[in-house]
Amino acid sequence: MERTLRVTIDRNTWPKPPALPAFPAAFNPTMDNWDVSVPALLLTIGYLTTPSHASGVSLSEFWAWVRYLHAVSGSPELLLTRAFHELDAHQKTILSDDFGMGAPIAWLIEKLNLTHVADGRYFIQRMATQVGVQPTTPKKRGPGKSPDFVARDASGVWHVLECKGTQTSGAYRAHQLGSGGRTPTGAVAQKRTIVFPHGYTGQRLASGLFIGVENGGVQSSLHLIDPEPEEPFEVRADDMVFADDAIARAATARALRLAGFPQASSAVSAPTGVSPASRPTVGRHETDRLATVEEKRDRAEYELKHRGDRDRFIAEGEYYRGRKVEISLPTPLNVGHRTVSSLIVRYGVGTSFLDQLREFPLTDDPIQERITALDELQKRTTLAGDKTGARLQIGTSFVADISFRN
Question: What predicted TM-score, i.e. pTM, was given to this entire model?
Answer without folding.
Answer: 0.87
